[in-house]
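STRUCTURE:
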């Protein structure tokens, strides 16, 4: 199960997905366009902006760019948590010291 952590708990937030080093697959319900994002930079973006990182609320911040470009329609994607690594990620990763501090804070 890709939507579970190492203790078999359901991943409910971006923070938990980032700590489990998962990938987020966002798929459009209309045109079937999909994109893969590493969870760490997505979590970092939401964390820096102060946006709620619970999975249902996260989906409200994404839309299909292809549907928007072609039809001027906002189509909210469905989310699948996977272990497939993305080719590229347009979002920056946190610097190494910030990530280590976060990991130590979470593990303690």
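SEQUENCE:
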């Amino acid at each position: 199960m890709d939507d579970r952590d190492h203790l078999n708990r359901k991943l409910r937030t971006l923070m938990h997905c980032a700590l489990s080093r998962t990938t987020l697959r966002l798929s459009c319900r209309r045109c079937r366009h999909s994109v893969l994002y590493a969870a760490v930079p997505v979590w970092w973006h939401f964390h820096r902006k102060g946006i709620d990182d619970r999975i249902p609320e996260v989906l409200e911040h994404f839309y299909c760019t292809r549907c928007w470009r072609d039809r001027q329609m906002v189509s909210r994607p469905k989310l699948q948590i996977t272990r497939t690594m993305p080719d590229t990620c347009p979002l920056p990763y946190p610097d190494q010291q910030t990530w280590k501090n976060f990991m130590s804070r979470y593990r303690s």
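REMARK: DSSP finds five helices and three strands in the chain.
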